[in-house]
TrEMBL record:
GO terms for biological process: glutathione metabolic process. This is 5-oxoprolinase. Residues 2-181 form the Hydantoinase/oxoprolinase N-terminal domain. It comes from Sphingomonas hengshuiensis. InterPro entries: ACX-like_C, ATPase_NBD, Hydant_A_N, Hydantoinase_A, Oxoprolinase-like. Pfam families: Hydant_A_C, Hydant_A_N, Hydantoinase_A. GO terms for cellular component: cytosol. Residues 506-674 form the Acetophenone carboxylase-like C-terminal domain. Residues 203-489 form the Hydantoinase A/oxoprolinase domain. The lineage of its organism: Bacteria, Pseudomonadati, Pseudomonadota, Alphaproteobacteria, Sphingomonadales. It comes from the Bacteria. GO terms for molecular function: 5-oxoprolinase (ATP-hydrolyzing) activity.
């Protein structure tokens, strides 16, 4: 029994997979922002009732969380102390000397305060060179005094980031030993552990970010584990990493920086699985939830993994799935600007409490969900009939806040709200396609999240990306992605040398050390030998370039020090990516090893055809606002739609976890995997 849990801003989504029976069960319950563990436990009870099992029967819980992200964005992290090499106290302030455009963008830049203040930064007398050789020995007495002054000032966590510690961690380890001897309960992170790579600002900010959210993540996971124990649930709790892999709750408590994009990762993972299952290897992932929308590109059946990301203004150099997020979701609030008199939607969200007006939980400001309800796109009841919508209240709110100030009818005001929200989301889709030289017409678009299938057809109509693919469990697809994820961790060693001057024995020894670390990690995660995979890569560049290209290297070649095949692959990849190759020396920058633990595939029992017709799936006709008029629109029950059936738009398809809108001049078919595929009429 594997349970995936995705905590969103409005709903907590759960998907339970029973490996023995090959069955999945889904549930949605309101999130509880004041204490997310309450909503998680409510969801567990609900899905166990649906599956008719006891909570104690759940073996594994796989959880994606936005705790780290929210703490950074809201500036509500821990007070972090920082130890640096003497003379480098301003590393976090200087950063990369970047300012936003245009030319004088720096004048209006509201630069945030560093995650560790200058008052909480201590200078240590020591110095290593880039090879790790000692230039100035560590002054233990001075270091001890500095540690006492800093740790006694009330900091909640301590980061240690010394110059060139990636080449020799001895001084950082010595400082950690001093801290642990006097302050054993204080969380300490070493940059040589968190990010053993060159470029001191990246290493420092990533390490400090880890400690900034570490106490919060510890408390959060502790609350969840305590509630599970109180319920008698002894399941293994695993957390989803930003790169779509899994880590234990204990590892997440120690290295929460690897979870900064944990939430969106599940949906991308499921989109990759869907691409491989259907043979549609060029897809756009479109995940629209209650608070935000996340989009990603799937190329050749694979997601793109970046070596760094940004959380607000702050970069984090950790492996992440490339996801673009915008503040537009079902709960995004619409209003009229008092300065310009124009209609705005988002990024403010009604969240789970009070939520959209139509949810009848105290919300008074109109949201995107209210507009969908007013225009007839949402059914009178959601979540399998458990949540009745107050359409009249939504109309009143839109009339008061939007229609009256703009002199519009309520219907046109609601239509305008959706148009603005769609434009915000289109901007994100353009960034990941057009701005990268990709033609969106070469892609299909996978719609998921509670609101994704409501808006995906409109996205496709503008961008020309067809088909629109609505999976069988779109509303809880991220939770399904967590269940489909593998255990993953990356090990890296900076090693800057000209490739033609590297001693193969030196390379072999360093890859051997990384392999030993990877095997220790796999042991700690209880990964069976048969499920272990090791993937070796090199960061290479032409000499004096500023950025690297990652290329794979076979395990035998890595452990023998043979670079010939990898160097040929580098030249080819550089020419394919940038259109040029150079006849200059190639420089090795870093060695990487990614260890994965394969998990059991999610095998779902094939559902037998109902044997009915499309008329049998018809629930009712309800008015829907399409174009500039109301149309008597058929509403279908997705559970009764069999492979091969076709629907002509406009139409609405209802299911437990979401609602799909099929626009006029479009048609839909149910494929062999029971996905809904939406096409424009001209492709009929």
């Amino acid at each position: 029994m594997r349970l995936g849990i995705d905590v969103g801003g409005t709903f907590t989504d759960l998907l339970l997979h029973d490996d023995k029976r090959g069955r999945t069960f889904r549930a949605k319950t309101p999130s509880t922002p004041e204490d997310q563990s309450i909503g998680i436990l409510n969801g567990i009870r609900l899905i166990c009732d649906i599956a008719k099992i006891k909570p104690q029967e759940i073996d594994v819980i796989l959880h994606g969380t936005t705790v780290a992200t929210n703490a950074i964005l809201e500036g509500k992290g821990a007070r972090v102390g920082l130890l640096v090499t003497e003379g480098f106290e301003y590393t976090l302030h200087l950063a990369k000397s970047w300012t936003p455009g245009p030319l004088f963008g720096w004048i209006i830049m509201d630069k945030p305060a560093p995650l560790a203040s200058l008052d909480d930064t201590g200078a240590i007398r020591e110095r290593l060179d880039m090879r790790g050789e000692v230039i100035e020995a560590l002054d233990v007495e001075q270091a001890t005094q500095t540690i006492h002054a800093l740790c006694g000032s009330g900091i909640e966590a301590l980061s240690i980031c010394l110059m060139h510690s990636y080449a020799n961690p001895a001084h950082e380890q010595a400082l950690k030993a001093i801290v642990e001897a006097h302050y054993p309960d204080l969380p300490v992170s070493l940059s040589s552990d968190i990010l053993p790579e060159f470029r001191e600002y990246d290493r420092a900010i990533t390490t400090v970010m880890n400690d900034y959210v570490r106490p919060i993540m510890r408390r959060y996971l502790s609350r969840i584990e305590n509630r599970l124990k109180q319920e008698g649930i002894n399941s293994h709790l695993h957390i989803v990493r930003s790169d779509g892999g899994l880590m234990s709750a204990e590892a997440a408590s120690e290295r929460p920086v690897h979870t900064v994009l944990s939430g969106p990762a599940g949906g991308v993972t499921s989109t990759v699985v869907l691409a491989q299952a259907t043979g549609r290897e060029r897809l756009l992932a479109f995940d629209m939830g209650g608070t935000s929308t996340d989009v990603a590109v799937i190329m050749d059946g694979k997601a793109t993994i970046s070596r760094s990301t940004e959380v607000g203004y702050f970069p984090a150099k950790v492996p992440t799935l490339e996801v673009r997020s915008v503040g537009a979701g079902g709960g995004s609030i619409a209003d009229v600007s008092p300065l310009t008199g124009s209609l705005r939607v988002g990024p403010r969200s009604a969240g789970a409490q009070p939520g959209p007006v139509c949810y009848s939980r105290g919300g008074t400001e109109p949201t995107v969900s209210d507009a969908n309800a007013v225009l007839g796109y949402l059914p009178p009841k959601l979540v399998g009939g458990d949540m009745a919508l107050d359409i009249d209240a939504a109309r009143t709110a839109i009339g008061r806040a939007i229609a009256d100030p703009l002199g519009l009818s309520i219907d046109d005001a609601a239509k305008g709200m959706l148009a603005i929200a769609n434009e915000v989301m289109l901007g994100a889709l353009r960034v990941i396609t057009v701005q990268r030289g990709l033609d969106p017409r070469d892609f299909g678009i996978v719609a998921f999240g509670g609101a994704g299938p409501l808006h995906a057809n409109a996205m496709a109509a503008v961008l020309g990306c067809y088909p629109v693919v609505v999976p069988t469990n779109p509303g809880v697809l991220s939770a399904l992605g967590f269940v489909q994820s593998e255990f993953k961790n990356e090990f890296v060693q900076t090693f800057i040398h000209r490739a033609d001057r590297i001693d193969p024995a030196n390379l072999r020894d360093r890859f051997g050390a990384l392999t030993a670390k990877a095997k220790d990690w796999l042991d700690s995660q209880d990964i069976a030998q048969v499920d272990r995979r090791l993937h070796f890569t090199l960061d290479l560049r032409y000499e004096q370039q500023g950025f690297e290209v990652e290329v794979p290297i076979a395990q035998d070649a890595a452990l023998s020090g043979d670079l010939s095949v990898a160097l040929a692959a580098f030249h080819e990849k550089h020419e394919r990516t940038y259109g040029v190759r150079f006849e200059v020396p190639v420089e090795l920058v870093a060695l990487r090893l990614t260890a994965t633990g394969v998990t059991e595939p999610v095998a779902v029992e094939e559902k037998a055809p109902s044997g009915g017709t499309i008329e049998d799936a018809l629930i009712e006709y309800r008015p829907g606002y399409f174009g500039d008029t109301w149309v008597d629109t058929p509403n279908y029950d997705r559970e009764k739609l069999d492979p091969g059936m076709r629907i002509q738009g406009p139409a609405i398809v209802r299911q437990y976890d979401t609602t799909t809108v099929l626009l006029p001049n479009h048609w839909a078919e149910i494929d062999d995997h029971r996905n809904i595929l939406i096409w424009p009429t001209e492709k009929n």
